[in-house]
TrEMBL record:
<keyword id="KW-0676">Redox-active center</keyword>
<protein>
    <submittedName>
        <fullName>SelT/SelW/SelH family protein</fullName>
    </submittedName>
</protein>
<dbReference type="InterPro" id="IPR036249">
    <property type="entry name" value="Thioredoxin-like_sf"/>
</dbReference>
<dbReference type="Pfam" id="PF10262">
    <property type="entry name" value="Rdx"/>
</dbReference>
<dbReference type="InterPro" id="IPR011893">
    <property type="entry name" value="Selenoprotein_Rdx-typ"/>
</dbReference>
Amino acid sequence: MAEELFTEFRQRITEIILVPSSGGVFEVEWNGKLIFSKKSKNRHAEKGELIRLLKKEIG
């Protein structure tokens, strides 16, 4: 998924930070704002969902 994000937003992303966790937590933040949380949605992101959410956030 990190590769998908980097490929799509190559010109805008200066870094991607992967933080190991436990308990199935998977969260994506953009500039400190939570964009997706597997824990709160109780599901993993669908293919293309993170790209769509980030495009909406970035504008």
